[in-house]
Amino acid sequence: MQQGSKKSLCFRLILLAILSSAFSILPANGQGAISPSLSISPGLVKQTVKPGEKSVVKIKVSNLGQDPIPMSVSKLNISKINDLGAPEFTPQVTPRSSADWLVVDKPDMIIDSKSDKEIEVTITAPRGTAPGGYSAALVFQARLPSYYFDLDANAHILPALTASFLITIDSNNPPTIQDLTISSFQAPGVVVSTPVPIVTEINNPTSFFIFTDGELVITPIWGDKKIVTRLASSVLMPESSRKYINAYDDTIWPGLYTAKMTLNQGDKVLVASAQFVAIPWPFIVMLLLAVVFIVSLIAFKKRRARRTALEPESIL
Questions:
Q1: 240-284 pLDDT tens trace
Q2: Strands 54-63 and 190-191, how do they pair?
Q3: Is residue 203 a part of any domain in this protein?
Q4: Same domain, 32 and 156
Q5: Which residue has the higher pLDDT, 109 or 31?
Q6: Residue 32 clears pLDDT 60, i.e. is over it
Q7: Number of C-alpha atoms within 13 angstroms, CB side, residue 287?
Q8: Angle at 105 between CA 102 and CA 108, to 5 degrees
Q9: Boundary-marking domain end, from 117, 152, 169
Q10: pLDDT band at residue 145 under the 50/70/90 scheme
Q11: CA-to-CA distance for 16 and 177, rounded, in angstroms?
């Protein structure tokens, strides 16, 4: 196997092990293995730096389990934020990569049970780096010997933690939310049942991260608005698009609805809206039953009138 293939396989195995908060080792038959519980703080670092100057960030890794956990740190780049809002990692270098800017003071460590380990990360952007947003990630990977696992297990899942870094080289004229465009805002034209999918695609053509707050609301034509989701410090990566996939799953009644996405950055606002008509299945069934009843009633009256017209008049 070539060296590139080995690296690719190793990277995929690492990604399979990355979880968000609590991590455990899952043996095949559930016996004979420990279950370490690890946490990291902060999981997201937003840092503004100046080219050529060092900035130090502290990361705390906690082991809440009963056994010491040896760990090592590796560096990856962030390729994008997926439709679920999670970062995707890659070893490949892009114009927005900054993994090489990070230096960890303790790349290998042992975290004792019920204890924390503080790691210092030094960020140094090269001199002459253009203003904009750059990203990277640290992967804290457990290195566990074989006796940690069930001997009968067919697979060993290693716990891992990540800390994402969003690094900004500042500018005298930073972009704002008004530089964004909502390239697509889609809601079904006619809805017969919930959940109602609503997809927003936002394009960030700038070279900076843009952080926004906002909300998605549904408003029936006759009533008060209903909040579907709130966005808090949502990030849009530089020179990229991002989809927000939401669903309205509350009770829906027949009528006209308006879906509205609002993004805020201070006093600046970006808005997109769309309308859809709701004709729920129960209403359709009731309507069909009513139509069948009316048609049957009309047909019955016509038959009765026809029989009456054919009957001979009685002789007085």
A1: 999 988 998 888 888 999 999 999 988 889 999 999 999 886 767
A2: unpaired
A3: yes
A4: yes
A5: 109
A6: no
A7: 7
A8: 105
A9: 169
A10: low
A11: 34
Give the Cα separation of 61 and 97 in Å (integer): 24
In a domain, 296, yes or no: no
Which DSSP string corresponds to 224-246?
A: --EEEEEEEEEEE-TTEEEEEEE
- The pLDDT, as a whole number, for residue 288 is 78
pLDDT of residue 218: 93
Range 143-149, long-range pairs (CB < 8 A, 24+ positions): 143/70, 143/71, 143/72, 144/25, 144/69, 144/70, 148/25, 148/33, 148/34, 148/67, 149/25, 149/27, 149/32, 149/33
64: domain CATH number is 2.60.40.10
262 occurs within a structural domain: yes
pLDDT on residue 142: 83
Same structural domain for residues 250 and 216?
A: yes
Examine the pLDDT at 16 and tell me if it is beyond 60: no
**DSSP assignment of 185-224, as one string?**
EE--SEESSS-EEEEEEEEE-SSS-EEEEEEEEEEETTS-
- Same domain membership, residue 162 and residue 185: no
Given a cut of 80, is residue 238 above it in pLDDT? yes
Residue whose token pair is 């095949």: 28
DSSP 159-186: PEEEEEEEEEE--SS---GGG-EEEEEE
pLDDT tens digits for 40-71?
A: 999 999 999 999 999 999 999 998 888 888 88
Number of domains into which the chain is organized = 2
On whether residue 283 sits in a domain, the answer given is: no
